[in-house]
Amino acid sequence: MGGGGVTEGSEPLLPTKREDDGAAAAAFHREFNGASFAGAVFNLSTTIVGAGIMALPATMKVLGLVPGLIMIVLAALLTDASIELLVRFSRVVGAPSYGAIMGDAFGWWGRRLLQVCVVVNNIGVMIVYMIIIGDVLSGTSSGGEHHYGVLEGWFGTYWWNGRFFVLLVTTLVVFTPLASLKRVDSLSYTSAISVALAVVFVIITAGISIVKLVTGQIPMPKLFPDVPDLASVWELFTAVPVLVTAYVCHYNVHPIHNELKDPSQIKPIVHTSLILCSTVYITTSFFGYLLFGESTLSDVLANFDSNLGIPYSSVLNDAVRVSYAVHLMLVFPMIFHALRLNLDGLLFPSSRPLSSDNRRFAVMTAVLLLVIFLSANFIPSIWDAFQFTGATAAVCIAFIFPAAITLRNPHSIAKKWDKILSIFMIVLAIVSNVVAVYSDAYSMFHKKSSPSIA
């Protein structure tokens, strides 16, 4: 790899040791004694639990509760296996980043391909986060019908609670300060709040479901899928991409690992995070589908836009939507951290670390925030493009690249089972990606060719 291997790519924003950082940087490093176990768990969990959680109840409607919940657990186990492969290969070569392992296995092009995938995936995800935040707080008129946002419902329609101004304030007041932090561990408190808000959503959904279940308002949910014909079998596969990409967090494993007080804790940190997120996913999927049944929408948040049939329905609706919007605001900087790091590696592969160049750090942060803000405001349909590129990038990051590194096996440490598992991951990733692209293309074509219903 050579000396340039550490300065390129997705290395930690703050390397643990650098002799050329200067006295100020050295003093800064001395002040930081390493990230805690809890802080690392919250940061990794926040990376995992984003907007995808709202699509999980709909997968239960497609698969049925029993297969759906089993698939959530299997996806977590597969993610754990892929991260374990990355960590194992990293230790052999002393790689400080995902990009460094790809560079070790596949050279320059491997590192660049990983960086491109992270940039494409993360910028698409953050644009969608900002669009959702705008929809929740300011409302949306997609589909020819206006759905009121929380602020509109509380105060009426004014210029200051319109989408542009709300997202501008959110960007300046929330995103910019959090995105300006140079260490992943600095986000541990906001990550803890983010995870707590996801739990709040689960508790509210579970509470409503239990109340309606006790009062006999909820029918028996579908335990297994209905497959009367071949088209129904194909529909089952449309749920696979949601589950396969539900735990993508691989690009933040190394930055978190490199800031730990005890780097050997990375495995239990990954296990704890996956258990925590699996618990949130399972309860969300179960109670979300139990509550709305066959009326569950592809984004279950949209179901909280109507009367829930219980007292204080509007208050609970607003609580769910606001807590989710704030949750996404706090997830945003964790995804942004990896985006900035990988884009810097693409554009300035031979430059000094981003953390020691304040001007480059500030300019890149400002430009990225501006691009995401403008995209979310003026071209919200940009997500149509990211449905294709994002699906491809996510499965590459989570499964194809770790499996390819294992099969390449440059240091002859992969076991037979590792290679079998890697082949399975690649096949699953390719199948899920083909299904995702086909279903997205079909839905877009169908949407354009069908007359709109007023």
Essential attributes:
single chain; 454 residues; mainly alpha; Amino acid/polyamine transporter I; 70% helix; globular; disordered N terminus; disordered C terminus; L-amino acid transmembrane transporter activity; AA_transpt_TM; membrane; transmembrane helix
The gist of it:
It is found in: Membrane. The protein has one domain: Amino acid/polyamine transporter I (Up-down Bundle).
Please describe what this structure looks like.
By secondary structure, the protein is an all-alpha fold. 70% of the residues lie in helices and 0% in strands. α6 (98-138) runs antiparallel to α16 and α16 packs antiparallel against α17. It starts with a helix and ends in a 5-residue tail after the last helix. Mean pLDDT is 84; it is low at 1-29 and 450-454.
Topology overview:
Layout: H1 4-7, H2 22-31, H3 37-48, H4 56-63, H5 65-93, H6 98-138, H7 150-155, H8 163-179, H9 188-214, H10 230-237, H11 240-244, H12 253-258, H13 266-292, H14 313-347, H15 358-378, H16 383-408, H17 416-449
Helix pairs in contact: 3-9, 3-13, 4-5, 4-13, 5-6, 5-13, 5-16, 6-8, 6-14, 6-15, 6-16, 8-14, 8-15, 9-13, 9-14, 16-17
The CATH homologous superfamily is termed Amino acid/polyamine transporter I
Distance between the termini: 60 Å
Main beta-sheet strand count, sense and barrel state:
none
Unreliable stretches (pLDDT < 50, length at least 5) are 1-29, 450-454
